[in-house]
Amino acid sequence: MDALRELLDWLSGRGLEVVLIIIGSVLLARFVAWAGTRITDRIDRNSTGGDALVRSEAAKHRHSLTQVLTWAAIVLIYSISVFFVLDRLGVPVTGLVAPATVLGVGLGFGAQRIVGDVLAGFFIITERQYGFGDVVSIQVVGGMEPASGTVEDVTLRVTRLRSPDGEVVTVPNGQIVKVINLSRDWARAVVDVPVPTTVDVNRANEVLREVGRAAFRDPALRPLLLDPPSVMGVESLDLEQVNIRVVARTLPGKQFEVGRDLRARVVHAFRSQGMQVPQPTTATPADDGATAVQEGAR
Fold first, then answer.
1. In 3D, which of 277, 279, 109, 251 has the Cα closest to residue 187?
2. How is the beta sheet containing 230-237 ordered, strand by strand?
3. Confidence of residue 241 (pLDDT cuts 50, 70, 90)
4. Is it the case that residue 296 has pLDDT exceeding 70?
5. Given 2.40.10.120, 3.50.50.60, 3.40.50.300, 2.30.30.60, which CATH number is that of 131-181?
6. Which residues on adjacent β-strands are paired with residue 125?
7. Residue 156: CA count within 13 A, CB half-sphere
């Protein structure tokens, strides 16, 4: 009877405090997660207005930073609640310092990779190497092929990408040795147009300049371009054809869409002028990460 009464007294006293601490910490952590989600959603919505070039870079950094701060706040809330619960249960917290130190040293040796991931993630975010929405190509330690795709999530430990095929690729930050950001500040769409050597190069250049001016006037394509596409001239020469390079500066991540549109316009313009575009024999790598996939019309 006395034991039951003591149990009821404990439940009505310290036990109730423990329950309230646990419930409060869970509710507070969920509120922080909800607030973080609302903030990131608002950042994403606002990044679509105003100066898209400037706001997109700032928005991507704020999005990643908000996610990391949210995660850190949740971990801090649960850590503090654990100490409060232990104190209410009568466990001497000060007596856990020495065992915790030994445990921390052991975990430090056993979890060096996790510590390296966290430190690497910290520098990735603070140095703005890439952020949410960036198109990147990541080379990892011992990896043959780089992981490429759009960044969907950046935490202190991992980076999560969505590949062009829709696959989700998770890369530990500590394993990253090289990052190619294809959407930082601005991008460049590079189109190499193969032209037969029998065609007047000056005429071909004029046709390509008109294609660039028409693309810049197009209301659907104009928001993606920073300036009118320019014709750089003959890039390479062989026995049967010359390659004339067209370059267009675009918004971050839009170089592929602009490149496809320009190629279609070039094919249409050459056909309307009675000029043929031969099948390319080689592919020329594009500047600034924009792949110059050459498509010819026979």
1. 251
2. 187-196, 241-250, 230-237
3. confident
4. no
5. 2.30.30.60
6. none
7. 15
CA distance linking residue 192 with residue 233, whole number of Å:
10
Domain layout of the chain by residue ranges: 2-91, 131-181, 187-289
pLDDT for res 50:
46
Q: What is the CATH number of domain 187-289?
A: 3.30.70.100
Instruction: Give the tokens for residue 147.
Output: 């992981």
Please name the amino acid found at residue 85.
Answer: V
Is pLDDT of 4 > 70?
Answer: no
Residue-level pLDDT at 295: 34
> Given this model, what pLDDT does residue 182 score?
79
More confident residue, 7 or 136: 136
3-state DSSP of the chain: CHHHHHHHHHHHHHHHHHHHHHHHHHHHHHHHHHHHHHHHHHHHHHCCCCCHHHHHHHHHHHHHHHHHHHHHHHHHHHHHHHHHHHHHCCCCCHHHHHHHHHHHHHHHHHCHHHHHHHHHHHHHHHCCCCCCCCEEEEEECCCCCCEEEEEEEECCCEEEEECCCCCEEEEEHHHEEEEEECCCCCEEEEEEEEEECCCCHHHHHHHHHHHHHHHHHCCCCHHHECCCCEEEEEEEECCCEEEEEEEEEECCCCHHHHHHHHHHHHHHHHHHCCCCCCCCCCCCCCHHHCCCCCCCCC
**Position 284 confidence tier, pLDDT thresholds 50, 70, 90:** very low
From residue 240, alpha-carbon distances to 39, 195, 198, 284, 293 in Å are 57, 9, 8, 17, 20
Q: Which two tokens stand for residue 213?
A: 């001016």
CA-based nearest residue to 202, from 230, 178, 231: 231
